[in-house]
Description:
By secondary structure, this protein is α+β, with helices and mostly antiparallel strands. It has four domains: about 1-45 and about 170-290, no CATH class; about 50-155, no CATH class; about 320-360; about 385-495, 3-Layer(aba) Sandwich (Glutaredoxin), CATH 3.40.30. About 40% of the residues lie in helices and about 25% in strands. It is built from 14 helices and 17 strands. The strands form four sheets. Strands 3, 4, 5, 6 and 9 form a five-stranded antiparallel sheet that branches. Strands 15-14-13-16-17 form a five-stranded mixed sheet, with helices on both faces. Helix 2 (about 25-45) crosses helix 4 (about 170-190) and helix 4 (about 170-190) runs antiparallel to helix 7 (about 265-290). The radius of gyration is 31 Å and the shape is globular. About 25% of the residues are buried. The model has no long low-confidence stretch (mean pLDDT about 90).
Amino acid sequence: MKYLANFLRIGVGLLFIFSGLIKSNDPTGFSYKLDEYFSVFSADLEPKQDSVIFYFNQQNNTDTFSSKINPNQQILNIIVYQNPWINSSNEVSIFERKISFSVSGQEIFNSNTLTSDTLEYSSELNFEISNKLIGHKKIGNMSYLSESIDISSHIIPNPIWVDFFQKLRPYSVYIAIGICVIEVLLGIALILGWAPRIILSSIFILTLFFTFLTWYSAYFNKVTDCGCFGDAIKLTPWESFYKDIILGIATLIIALGFKHLKPMISTPFSVKILTVSLISSVGFSLYCWHYLPVKNFLKFKKGNNIYDLANVPDGAPTDVYENIFLYSKDGVNKEFTINDISSRNLQEEGYVFVDRIDKLISKGYEPEINDFKIMDVDRTNDYVEDFYSDSGYKLLIVFNDIEKSNSQSIDQLKNIIRFCKENEISMYPLTASKAENVDAFSKRHNLNIPFYYGDKTNLKSIIRSNPGLVLLQKNTVIENWPSTRLPSEEDLISVTRP
Length: 498
């Protein structure tokens, strides 16, 4: 037990140091994962709200539609608008009008109504919650109706944990840095043998915390990458969970051999080492957060060919699917293959066909970059192939969230834009923000460049800065720059005119 406990003590300590340093190298990426967890927990803990059911009665027809109750919106603003009647045919006396219905600014009903006698036309609107009538309005030939309904008494209040996790989200990066530093210090302290009872208890509690997170990710398929080792080592949620289980067992074994844990050095010297480690790990994390990771593990790192990483090589295996037929018998569904169907008479056996599904048998080759898009404002046209075919120097200007971007760097960014225009360097400004926010931002800062649009998660994985610059020659990344260290004109000249 003595040798096993001390062996595991070194192993667990080194694992904690390694995990902490890897995440400290990319605290922004780790904070994205924490923010995702906080968002998921908050959403999952929200109570299921009722819906407001609307019944729009016109003549002998009733249209039914619903609107989910928003707990942050206690007043429903209902607007019904009816265009004037028009004669839809010169030969027959048929009149037509368009009716639109919106709830709190969102249109949820739009149709054309026909009638042969507008004087006899009648319509009314009823709405209810939980089968209880909460409103009734006769509309008839009224062209416009506006109504406000107080539904506060029907809203199920959020439990305290929903607001708690929501309030944690703005502080994700600070929590991430804190966890990274704690992991490093716990690992060093465990190896040194400093305050072993406190350190072992802390490690076990932290391991339980990570075990719960990874189990939650794996079981509910909520956060598909826990970020245990950042982008350096990709683990599936189940792999991360099993890793934490093994780590927890190792910690318990160390605790059982507690009496064999002896300090390696004196307590005062251990304190000095831990103090230096604290200052160093905090400084390292803040440096990587303020600038960019010292070691870049992202796909758009310097030297990578983006085109090669985004395309499937010739001869690579593809996804293999099998046609599965779903039949039901006595209320129980059962799957059958084509061979099963050809060798049996399922109808005589009492089976009823339900559906046909394509079942994945084996997963084919998946490129490392599979979600990189350069879309137009309507998100209908993708110009990524044009980007790949551009054989000169090209600059990606990434704003993953233009409203939260570092505005202090805009003046220098405008100088870079001017340099690119003068030297015929293609620019691809990319953002995931709404078009109206992009237009307002461009006008406010006088940015005379057209923006393209992409997926926010993908943009965050290109560069850990908002904004961030990625310079490519053909499709090979030449350099990355964060908003806190944008290149001067001399820097650009040195990399584009070597």
